[in-house]
Design a protein that fits this description.
Largest interface: A-B, 43 and 53 residues
Order of helices and strands of chain A: HHEHEHHHEEEHEHHHHHEHEHHHEHHEH
CATH topology of one domain in chain B: Rossmann fold
Helix content of chain B: 40-55%
CATH architecture of the largest domain in chain A: 3-Layer(aba) Sandwich
Largest sheet of chain B: 4 strands, parallel
Order of helices and strands of chain B: EHEHHEHEHHHHEHEHHHEHEHH
Strand content of chain A: 5-15%
Strand content of chain B: 5-15%
Structural class of chain A: alpha/beta
Distance between the termini of chain A: 46 Å
CATH topology of the largest domain in chain A: Rossmann fold
Oligomer: heterodimer
Number of strands of chain B: 8
Chain lengths: ~425, ~350
């Protein structure tokens, strides 16, 4: 695999980030629609490399919901969901995403009428219900990529099933849009995806340095193209440059985290999108997050081999999209912590008990028990929701964080 | 073999010479407290986990889980991690009903059969599987006849729930005998004169019994019901056409409307059809608090219920007497509104 990638001319990170930011991607979507490019409402776990290879523009409601929460514009959508009888106990991404579909609008503005829908169970079971609803509401062609529950995602029979579905997905797109599949285009998007994933993983490795060059707050925004633009060259170029930039910070012994790094922490769970300043607060007190399953295990090259093989694109994508965290039993999940804690020199763990995300939150207590048994690390549990700020109180969170940091301080002394 | 939840292929368990036993929630609040699970999870998973810790199911040889619910799926991880059962089997259940999914699921059933054979020592032959499917098909047919006869049978709503629930914990041959006896004894002329007829859609059996009693207190009769267990297990017979593993896969996928997986139009239509068949004037849709699947399904079905002017009442509560009690007024108002 070429380490240097296909970068031919020097490029600027900021200008690339401008093209890949949430706002930019929204404008791209509108432009794509104006140009007649088919629009697909896609769930975040499907093989987006196929979409980009075939010229279909994806929009991801979960991502739009997270962004809406991040910029403080999600409440109107939650209110709309409540008016329609959706219980607040339902995942906030789903409530927000459904509301987008009722008003054909997101936090940035109108959403064009989609042409096709592709959903899956890669992230959670609720996605099936969600996309089934969208299918009936919009009466547009809908495809489901099935990922049955398993605790052995590397079973060849299981990967075969997923691979066959990717072929079916291609046929579905060809049957329902003017787009035509070309193998060379798919190899190109897989190459781009691999390069992006490789450099992202390399950035994660840089965080083993002390201080870690990255701030989890910044990474939470920088991860966006890995979710929504995987397969396009700009995303690959961006992560390559980002890696070089972080590498420079390592050489200088600098960090983007606020404050001076005194404690190194793990964050378990999705970021609290509506209150990312929680991360800032940790950082100002000298606590830097250096590893998260969200950044290290959820996105990018998830293949057991760690790299994608563009010469076998269907198989490599099947191996990537089946080898996901939700398919791992607790013992296998713990092994990642078991590796990360010593390698990243972790001092403590923060678990975000997210009522919207059962796949992430259930089992956290058991992971805590395993971590404490082997490492005796202090653990702080913060409760809330990923996108719905109802019930979350920043002052309460600060108080709990302060108490946790006192424990870390005492241990260091 | 304990089963959690309604999608477990009980026919395979039966063919392996084992008795499938559905795990059922218990009203004792100590179980939820003992579960150690997160407060925002459904009471069913907490009750079952608490019962397991209390060794209520110490006699079973294993548990098989087939679910489309994230909570159930992750709670299985905890059970497996803590080795709470001698054997923990996770069914790789597809969420679609394509031919590809059927082929995959048939192979999955063969894999499960081999696992069960190792436990029971009984080979799951095609002949044994066909026999098991026939037994469960007979049970489905008898339950269908029971529900057809229910509105004019004189059987109270709570008793009807017990008849259905017994199917979940009784060996199928025995339940078939009991059902045949029951059907033979029904008085087809026992009409529910003067009573407002209702349908109940629910998951939790204990809560359902409470709500049925509330409805009866105010002069209604619950003449039909739809439980997730029943909707997925008890509704449609499995046609036998050739390879029984493939027939079973085809039977379990895409045939039965239930929360989370299948087209809402079909699901809503199924409810409406059951109501019409039973002469139900209204429907109570009972959601156990923190059950995402039911809560989300309800909101989606509501659009159709409203469009069809299908009178219904949504109730959402925990499985505790203190949570059910406040529902009195709402049930009373609903029943009176149907008069």
């Amino acid at each position: 695999m070429p380490e240097a990638g296909r970068l031919e001319e020097p490029s600027d990170i900021k200008s690339l980030l401008k093209k890949l930011s949430a706002g930019a991607q929204y404008r791209r979507m509108m432009a794509a629609h104006e140009e007649g490019q088919p629009i697909c409402v896609a769930s975040a776990g499907i093989p987006s490399e196929i979409l980009y290879a075939m010229g279909v523009y994806p929009i991801y409601p979960e991502s739009l919901a997270a962004i809406a929460a991040g910029i403080g514009k999600a409440q109107e959508f939650f209110d709309l969901a409540r008016e329609r009888g959706y219980s607040p106990s339902i995942c906030s991404y789903a409530r927000c995403g459904l509301a987008f579909s009722w008003v054909n609008r997101c936090a940035f503005g109108p959403i064009p009428e989609p042409d096709i829908f592709i959903g899956d169970t890669n992230l959670c079971c609720l996605h099936v219900t969600w996309w089934a609803y969208l299918r009936e509401q919009f009466e547009k062609p809908t495809f489901f990529v099935d990922l049955p529950a398993t605790d052995d995602p590397q079973d060849p029979n299981y990967v075969d099933y997923y691979e066959e579905q990717i072929h079916e997905m291609v046929k579905f797109i060809e049957a329902n849009t003017p787009c035509v599949f070309r193998m060379e285009k798919l190899k190109e998007t897989v190459r781009n995806s691999d390069r992006a994933g490789h450099y992202w993983k390399s950035i994660m490795q840089l965080r083993k340095n002390k201080p870690s060059p990255a701030s989890f707050r910044t990474l939470a925004g920088e991860i966006l193209p890995l979710v929504t633009a995987l397969g396009i060259q700009e995303a690959a170029d961006f992560y390559q440059l980002l890696y070089q930039s972080y590498g420079g910070l390592v050489k200088e012994g600098k960090t983007l985290a606020k404050g001076v790094e005194k404690y190194r922490l793990i964050w378990d769970g999705i970021p609290i999108w509506h209150h990312l300043q929680v991360i800032d607060y940790f950082e100002t007190k000298g606590a830097n997050f250096v590893w998260e399953p969200y950044t290290s295990l959820n996105w990018g090259n998830l293949n057991p081999a760690g790299r994608l093989d563009p010469e076998k694109p269907f198989r490599t994508l099947a191996e990537k999209y089946t080898n996901v965290k939700i398919n791992l039993p607790l013992e296998k999940k713990f092994r990642f912590y078991d590796q990360a804690i010593p390698e990243y020199r972790v001092d403590g763990v923060v678990m975000f008990s997210n009522r919207s995300c059962r796949p992430n939150s259930i089992g956290q207590d058991e992971l805590i028990a395993m971590i404490k048994e082997k490492y005796d690390l202090p653990v702080l549990i913060l409760e809330g929701d990923q996108a719905d700020a109802e019930g979350f109180n920043m002052q309460d969170a600060r108080t709990r964080i302060d108490g946790f940091l006192e424990v870390l301080e005492a241990r260091q002394s | 073999m304990a089963c959690f939840y309604g999608l477990v292929p009980k026919e395979i368990i039966h063919a392996a010479g084992m008795v499938p036993l559905q795990l059922i929630e218990d009203r004792d609040p100590r179980y939820e407290g003992q579960s150690g699970l997160l407060p925002y999870l459904c009471g069913m998973s907490k009750s079952l986990t608490g019962q397991i810790y209390s060794r209520v199911f110490a006699y079973v040889d294993g548990v098989m889980v087939a679910t489309v619910c994230d909570t159930n799926r992750r709670v299985f991880d905890i059970w497996a991690h803590k080795k709470l059962f001698p054997h923990c089997l996770l069914v790789r259940l597809p969420s679609t009903a394509t031919e590809l999914a059927v082929k995959f699921y048939a192979e999955e059933f063969r894999r499960l059969a081999r696992e069960l054979e190792r436990i029971s020592g009984v080979a799951v032959t095609e002949e044994r599987l066909r026999g098991a499917i026939a037994q469960f098909n007979e049970n489905r047919e008898l339950l269908r006849r029971f529900y057809d006869a229910l509105p004019e049978s004189g059987i109270a709503g709570a008793e009807a729930i017990h008849v259905f629930a017994a199917a979940l914990v009784t060996p199928v041959e025995e339940h078939n005998v009991l059902l045949r006896q029951l059907l033979g004894s029904l008085d087809a002329s026992a009409k529910m004169e003067g009573k407002t007829k209702l349908m109940l859609c629910a998951l939790n059996l204990n809560m359902s019994l409470e709500v049925v009693r509330l409805a009866e207190k105010y002069g209604a009769a619950v003449v039909t019901n739809d439980f997730t267990h029943n909707a997925r297990y008890g509704s449609d017979p499995i046609p036998l056409a050739g390879d029984p593993f493939e027939d079973l896969a085809r039977g379990y996928l895409g045939r039965v409307p239930a929360p989370g997986v299948y087209p809402f139009e079909a699901r809503a239509g199924y409810i409406r059809e059951r109501m019409q068949k039973a002469g139900a004037q209204g429907m109570i849709y009972l959601i156990q608090l923190y059950c995402d699947a039911y809560a989300m399904e309800y909101a989606m079905l509501k659009e159709r219920f409203d469009r069809w002017n299908l009178k219904h009442l949504k109730l959402e509560a925990e499985d505790t007497p203190s949570s059910i009690e406040p529902l009195n007024v709402r049930v009373q108002s609903f029943v009176e509104s149907l008069l």
